[in-house]
Amino acid sequence: MPKLFELADLESSRAGKIGMEVGSVREKIIIALLIYKFGKENVETEIPITEPEIDVKVFKKPISIKTISSKYLTSIKLIWTVDAKKAIEFQKNYEPSCDMILTHINWEDTGGFYFIPVNVQNEVLKNIGKKNYIKLPKAGTNPRGVEMTGNALKALINHSMTKQIEIDWKKENINFKPYKKWIELWKQN
User: Fold this and answer.
1) What's the structural domain count of the chain?
2) How many C-beta atoms surround the C-beta of residue 129 within 10 A?
3) How far apart are CA 76 and CA 73, in angstroms?
4) Where are the alpha helices (DSSP H) in 43-179?
5) What are the residues whose beta carbons fall under 8 Å from the beta carbon of 109, sequence distance 6 or more?
6) 29-68 pLDDT, tens per residue?
7) Which of 14, 153, 165, 180 sits at 20 to 30 Å (Cα–Cα) from 72?
């Protein structure tokens, strides 16, 4: 997994900065793992991009895929919006509706790969309350979305029903040439 995520970072970078599109590439890596482990016939990938929470279905069960690249579990996006009214409405109406796969990328240290059942998410939400679970964007800023708080994340991953695999995130320092595959494809025409 670290090698594939390192490739995702390289593929989504320009001038040493990783772009937001890295999330979509990482999601594809996780979905490919699910297809590899459970077979294409058991993994539904044709989920509309407009679906607010579901990224994939495995054995017909919906799953949300989240990734975070940081030393500490700070927060993750629950919904991408810059509209303050929509953000408040989202917080008011939010109820987790599917299981979650969370990947914590912590380069040159330890992170994890977590499966968080929907009932765990609902339990934590009920226990800490929406205002402690959901972080609204600050007015007058451009945060691009509503987030789950770091405290909620920690409660989710530390729950006894959450399944986790510890991952040592070591980079291989891959010699990546971002335009090589595209040049090769142009040569084929």
Assistant:
1) 1
2) 10
3) 8
4) 84-93, 118-128, 130-133, 150-157
5) 71, 168, 169
6) 999 999 999 999 999 999 998 887 899 999 999 999 999 9
7) 14
**54 occurs within a structural domain:** yes
Name the 3-class secondary structure at 27: helix
Rounded distance, CA 16 to CA 21, Å?
Answer: 14
Cβ–Cβ under 8 Å, residues 145 and 89 = no
Is residue 178 domain-resident? no
Q: Is 165 within 8 Å of 111 (Cβ atoms)? A: no
Residues 145-170: tens digit of each pLDDT: 889 999 999 999 999 999 999 999 99
Other CB atoms within a 10 A radius of the CB of residue 6 amount to 19
Output the six-digit token pair for 121.
């998410």
The pTM is what?
0.90
